[in-house]
Amino acid sequence: MSPQGPLDGRHILVVEDDYLVAEILCELLADAGAAVLGPIGWANEALAYVELHAGELDGAILDVNLHGEASYAVADALAARGVPFAFATGYGPDALDRAYRGYRRCDKPFSVRDVIAALS
Q1: pLDDT at residue number 3
Q2: Which of 3.40.50.2300, 2.120.10.30, 3.30.70.270, 1.10.1740.10 would CATH assign to domain 11-119?
Q3: Tens digits of residue pLDDT in 45-60
């Protein structure tokens, strides 16, 4: 029997447009025991996924900027459905629109501890 990770049994959606960052984040989450969904790199695709599968999600990590488009519509859809999420950004807190600054944030480069804390 393998040891349990802090995210065991949790289905976490990764919305990230940078392939290498997405791969690192997915690996980090999987190592923590999560069932990783995605990555999805486009806001419209992520929004469609959330609309169809929100009931299957236990959390999400959203890159703030997806190919030049903010991920706020995805954040709104997750929040409306009660799915916890955190924004991922390589910029400071001021990079988020004021209305979204109250949500959790994971700074890039990621630390395991910060990602797990953001999803706990």
Answers
A1: 54
A2: 3.40.50.2300
A3: 999 999 999 999 999 9
